[in-house]
Design goal:
Residues 367-423 form the Aspartokinase ACT domain. It catalyses: L-aspartate + ATP = 4-phospho-L-aspartate + ADP. GO terms for molecular function: aspartate kinase activity; ATP binding. It comes from Mucinivorans hirudinis. The chain is an alpha/beta fold and 426 residues long. It folds into 2 domains: 3-207, Acetylglutamate kinase-like (Carbamate kinase, 3-Layer(aba) Sandwich); 286-425, VC0802-like (2-Layer Sandwich), CATH 3.30.2130. The protein is built from 14 helices and 16 strands. It has helices at 15-28, 41-50, 54-75, 80-94, 101-108, 110-125, 149-155, 186-197, 231-239, 250-256, 310-320, 345-352, 380-387, 414-425; strands at 3-7, 32-35, 130-132, 164-168, 171-173, 179-181, 202-207, 228-230, 259-264, 273-276, 285-300, 328-330, 334-339, 357-371, 395-397, 404-410. Helix 1 (15-28) packs across helix 3 and helix 2 packs antiparallel against helix 3. The longest helix is centred in the first third of the chain and has 22 residues, at 54-75. It is globular and about 70 Å long. The relative contact order is 0.10. The mean pLDDT is 91.
Amino acid sequence: MKKTLKFGGTSVGSAENMRKVAAIIRSERAQLTVLSAMSGTTDALVKITQTSGFAEKQTIIDLLGEKYSSCIGELLSDKTDAIARMEATLDFIASPSSCDEGSAKAVLAQGELLTTYIFTKYIEEQGCKAVLLNAPDFMHTDADGKVDTTLLKNGLANLDKDTFYITQGFICTNAGGELDNLGRGGSDYSAALMGVAIGSAEVQIWTDIDGMHNNDPRFVEKTYPIRRMSFDEAAELAYFGAKILHPATILPCKEAGVNVRLKNTMDAAAEGTLIAAADDSAASFHAVAAKDNITVIRITSARMLMAYGFLRKVFEIFEKWRTPIDMITTSEVAVSLTIDSTCHLQEIVAELSPLGHIEVESGNTIVCVVGRINYEASGLAAQIFKSVSSVAIKMISYGASHRSLSLLINTTDKKRTLQSLNDFLF
């Protein structure tokens, strides 16, 4: 069975972990392996691009150098080429132009490029036939950020079944021919697209947790991994805050009928979670996820009453400023909606103001309960609301899908809301 494996930053965050990854891809006979940068690298590179002070910038670069040289020293027998590659990378990052707008994204790509180079060297030292592929050669995006899947498929055609191919997630070439990226979490998306392109039967996403849990184990006690779920459920959970999986990962795999399996690098024997076309669970409530940094925008206008075209005008403003809407509720004279990106909030509010009275409120969290919440089944919503009866709920969204019910709450109430839902529903 042809497989594409993706490993996150923690999975390749040390020499010891890289050895685990190498053992896994040999065991799984992965034809294509997609790697993130070593954990902490991208955050450090972002700081470098945003730092104007030479001393502060050099301190971060020195720490990166120590991190990568330590990994190379522990991992490789022949260190010469890897050290030379690392030094060249650090020199590029330290160059005066690295903070220019045109160079910043190229700087952010260096973590993936260096990590995959070091890892491929290690695989070769283990006696395996390995080839390092440069993702920006075949991962191209248009002006809207959409990946050219035809070019991707052609670029990955005719892979040798007896060779381990290693490449980078996250990075790409944009419409202007510049080194760019798919955004945070884009490595999962890269792996999904690449897996579909080479005809994989399965795309595996390896992290440091045993699959998708029924709730966020960082905030909630007594969570458990879900062994199987549908594409639709996984998409809802990923979009509404489940950190283990990037939300864009699901769609290309769902459309191509490629299963996604979530696995734990630190415990390769653990079963993980299989995401497939359908699941065999009869549970009404499958999992809960939470999405922070949500801003509410409320528009109140008497002109909405018995009028048509009002919502179209609202949506056109958000479309103009390329800002997605998460939740929306309406009444006869008001509409409330939420966004998780405030990059163009001032411009959006300015253009909404002629439509009515505008209120903006930050510090919110969307909590999403996912499962078989069928509108024909009575009492399911009552169970959810009973479990959060002590929490102030600002918005409710249900009906667009029978797979989920979403609640908007103050972020300060997040932890107790998640714990209460976990205790009551599961």
